[in-house]
Design goal:
Structural class: mainly alpha
Distance between the termini: 15 Å
Shape: globular
Number of helices: 5
Order of helices and strands: HHHHH
């Protein structure tokens, strides 16, 4: 079973609103509601990316289902769903929420800054490789992935998606 969170409400709070539904939802994927909600937020973000590409570029690009970068940030959705579910279930002042929030902030900072900079560097290196007049070294045989990071807006949207999934899921299933 889950890491003991079901026993954290001795007042029978999770007895009412469909405890059978709760058991089914938790046991469905990992046996851990918080992890399931984080995975759900990640999956929704990936599907949204696919739909946005379909609408804006009029093409089916199945690489978006598992790729990083783009709108919304699935990394932000994942960690924000985890943190918001932890806060809703264990309390907003609990050490578990604090740890989850700190990790979420670090991941979102990385998505918007460090990985975005790496993507910009990849663009420049791809340009250099494209215009290389001499024999290309073996290192230049593979094009680098340019869509690594996110704009702050993409991170914000992923974070809001994750918070929504985390809070709604914690309220509905817990």
């Amino acid at each position: 079973p889950c890491a003991g969170w079901r026993n954290s409400w001795p007042d029978g709070r999770n007895e009412g609103r469909g405890s059978r539904m709760l058991k089914n939802a938790v046991d469905f994927l990992t046996g851990n509601l918080i992890l399931n909600l984080a995975i759900l937020a990640w999956a929704l973000a990936q599907v949204i990316k696919f739909v946005i590409t379909l609408i804006t570029k009029h093409k089916l690009d199945f690489r978006n289902i598992l790729s990083s970068g783009g709108m919304p940030s699935s990394h932000s959705a994942f960690v924000c769903a985890c943190a918001s579910a932890m806060g809703a279930m264990y309390g907003w002042t609990s050490p578990t929420f604090t740890l989850a929030a700190v990790v979420a902030i670090v991941v979102m900072y990385d998505a918007a800054n460090v990985r975005k900079a790496a993507g910009e560097q990849a663009k420049i290196l791809n340009y250099i490789m494209e215009h290389w007049t001499e024999m290309k070294p073996a290192l230049f045989g593979k094009e680098l992935k340019e869509l690594l990071g996110h704009t702050p807006f993409q991170v914000l949207m992923g974070g809001l998606l994750g918070i929504g999934v985390g809070l709604l899921g914690a309220w509905w299933f817990a």
